[in-house]
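HUMAN: Spend a minute on the protein record below and explain its fold to me.
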Amino acid sequence: MRWTRILLKETTGLTGLAVHPNPRPALISLYQKTLSELSSIPETALYRQSVSAITSHRLRIVESSEDVSKIEHEIAAGQVEELIQQAQDELGLLEKVKGWKPWEALEVPEPEKQWEYTFSENKGSR
């Protein structure tokens, strides 16, 4: 499968994004690393819950099929090389989020009524 993939796909058609010689193991490794890194974020954090759900779903798809085109179709988020790029980007963001700690209380309390909005109806002005 790996050798025929190289013969079948010479380019991604996307500038700056080369064909990956062995994408499935790369994706599995990236998804497993993401799930492992998420364990250092509190389970109650919305970021962890969201990324864990998406990553676990994608990992199941990749592990269940050797066929790269089937993986691309089921995930429906671009070519496998784009999926690899997305997974790498998520790992980079995850490191930043761990430093930002958005699940912790704010250092300065939010102003009263910060998230309340009032709308007035301006008749005739659009």
